[in-house]
Amino acid sequence: MYRFLLSRQWVILTLIALLLIPTMIELGFWQMHRYEERTARNDLVAEALDADPVPVERLTSPGKRITSAERYRSVTATGRFDTAGEVVVRRRTNADDEVGYHVLTPFVLDDGKVLLVNRGWIPADGPSQTEYPEVPAPPSGEVTVTGRMMPDETTEASGIKNLKGLPDRQVMLIDSAREAERLDASVLGGYIVLTTPEPKDGTPELIGRPGDEDAALNFAYAIQWWLFSAAVPVGWWFLVRREARDRADATDTADDAAEAEPAAV
């Protein structure tokens, strides 16, 4: 009755089903791993954002690499903004996905070290972006700032290429080592995203808090892949039963036709 399973068509179909089952199970485990990674990251970010501010030099120093546990930690610093060393970071978007710049201003601490401060987003003056844009001035004199600690940007992490030949005072990535060389100063590793004081007239536009990654979606995908893997053998057996039934019906029809045919005289 099931001899048809040895046919070329059914052997290929069975092999495909056997390959699909472990592949879908593995994809489910991969999605579950992504769910666990994203959940852990969300917990780490939430913990960092909720922590009390600490002096910036407690977390970083010249040449230091900011770790994932230190990222988004709230820090404070006292000093003055140095607009002479200010640059803008190209191809950055705001909450409305408008393309513009981030304003990166050196902040000279009381001990002479420099902290890089991302003061926020400003719109681009035009499509060419070859001229240095008009940048709102920061507070003058000594001021205390608060911000979220961030690691240096890299092409690998951001996907942004560090282009050469840019217009004067424009950069693609925020890199404390390069800024230390450009400013000829002792620059703390990483940078901060400014949260206070808020700018006058709302510009530069402060960068919002990081949102949670959608970990629940990965969990749903994992369950989906495992359900698919369970459905494959069920679907295969359904096809086998239907094929066997169709063949049996065809045989019965042929037998009935043979019985109804009048005998030769």
TrEMBL record:
<keyword id="KW-1133">Transmembrane helix</keyword>
<comment type="similarity">
    <text>Belongs to the SURF1 family.</text>
</comment>
<keyword id="KW-0812">Transmembrane</keyword>
<feature type="transmembrane region" description="Helical">
    <location>
        <begin position="219"/>
        <end position="239"/>
    </location>
</feature>
<dbReference type="InterPro" id="IPR045214">
    <property type="entry name" value="Surf1/Surf4"/>
</dbReference>
<protein>
    <recommendedName>
        <fullName>SURF1-like protein</fullName>
    </recommendedName>
</protein>
<dbReference type="Pfam" id="PF02104">
    <property type="entry name" value="SURF1"/>
</dbReference>
<keyword id="KW-0472">Membrane</keyword>
<keyword id="KW-1003">Cell membrane</keyword>
<dbReference type="InterPro" id="IPR002994">
    <property type="entry name" value="Surf1/Shy1"/>
</dbReference>
